[in-house]
Here is the input.
Amino acid sequence: MKKGFFITFEGGEGAGKTSLIDSIKKYFDSKNLEYIVTREPGSTKLGEHLREIILQEKNGKKISSNVSQNLDSKAELCLFLASRAQHIKEVILPSLKHNKIVLCDRYNDSSVAYQGHARGLGIDKAIDFSSFIIEGAVPDLTLYLDIDPKIGLSRVQSKLDRIESETLEFHQKIRDGFHILAKKNPQRIKILDATKSKKSVFEDAIKQVSKFID
Ligand code: T5A
Here is the structure.
């Protein structure tokens, strides 16, 4: 078994990342594998603070914050990257060093699809800019849960946060951005059909994950 590897989960809103990670946790428990579950933005004190600012949301509840009103797209990208840099240092690298499997709910591909493509900063610019932050912490495997944003958004039960509240066109661009990234990185990024049942999505995911744990 390859020890200490890094799996990220990506997708549009309501694609089912959190549900899939929950199923994979149970599967890893049954195999006595050591893992951690973490997420972005967040997972460190700084990251959780930045999360509130970026999403205008605290513990699933909407908060009004003047700080992120009219947030510039470049500033938004920098906030996500600041959260990521701290996350890599405090959580991801130490876990990998201790041979744990890291299951991370969103990571750098989200920055490229959301800020790079949907916000219009440019996919290649976002990749270049973020490469300095993530050097030494590139995922071994990325499971991208693909779904029509209309279906994904209809699954979101809590009040929509600042980014979820964007237009359908914006969410479609995010999906296009992930597809561009998947084409650029076919070895790392595996596309899963997120409209299938939770059980089928889990089975498709395990086929990919097994390549690392068997
Ligand atoms: N962001 C993030 C950026 O813009 N740039 C970045 O660099 C980063 C890191 C994060 C926001 O920040 C943005 C992206 C996001 O807008 P978040 O709260 O973490 O915000 O939001 P999400 O990651 O999108 O989390 P969600 O909870 O909205 O989506 P999930 O985790 O993909 O979905 P999940 O598992 O909670 O499922 C949603 C609902 O669907 C059902 C579940 O039971 C649940 O009710 N469901 C299914 N139903 C039918 N069939 C299936 N297969 C299902 N799977 C799940």
